[in-house]
Amino acid sequence: MSNTSELFGSMVFSNAVMRERLPKDTYQTLQKTIKHGKHLDINIANVVANAMKDWAIEKGATHFTHWFQPMTGVTAEKHESFISPNEDGRVIMEFSGKELVKGESDASSFPSGGLRATFEARGYTAWDATSYAFIKDKTLCIPTAFCSYGGDALDEKTPLLRSMEDFNREALRILKLFGSDATSVKTTVGPEQEYFLIDKSVYEKRPDLIYTGRTLFGRKPPKGQELEDHYYGTIKPRVKAFMEELDEECWKLGISAKTEHNEVAPAQHELAPIFTTTNIAADHNQLTMELLKKVASKHGMFCILHEKPFEGVNGSGKHNNWSAATNTGVNLLEPGDTPSENAQFLLFLCAVIKAVDDYPELLRISVATAANDHRLGASEAPPAIMSMFVGEELGEILESIKNGNEYAVHEKKQMKIGVHTLPRIPKDNTDRNRTSPFAFTGNKFEFRALGSSASISEVNTVLNTIVAEELRQFADILENADNFEKELHNLIRKTIKEHDRVIFNGNGYDESWEKEAKERGLLNLKTTPDAYSKYLDKKNVELFSSHNVFTLAEMKARYEIALENYIKTINIEAETMIEMVRKQILPAVSAFEEDLASSISIKKEVSEKASCRFEEETLETESKTADKAYAAVKNLEKTLKGAKGESIELAMYYKDKVIPAMRKLRNEVDTLETITDAEHWPLPTYGEMLFSVKY
Ligand code: ADP
Ligand code: MG
Question: How many CB atoms lie within 10 A of CB 649?
Answer without folding.
Answer: 12
